[in-house]
Amino acid sequence: MTNIFASEAKMQEWLSDALKDVDGLGDLISNIETISEAVASHASDERLLESFKTCIKSLYITHTMSENENIS
Prior knowledge:
Layout: H1 8-19, H2 32-36, H3 43-58
């Protein structure tokens, strides 16, 4: 597997900087509207899709608890 970041500290630094310019994690997800606007094609998919839509709303409630911490 190829790592995007050289270290966890670099990932946290990027995330901290990125969150300064947006309202929440949801703004960092490409094409998030695809899920928000999706319509289930089967009744069995409806519950799963609604769960995704509910979770997406919470991605805009973002508060940094700590920085430069090993969270592994």
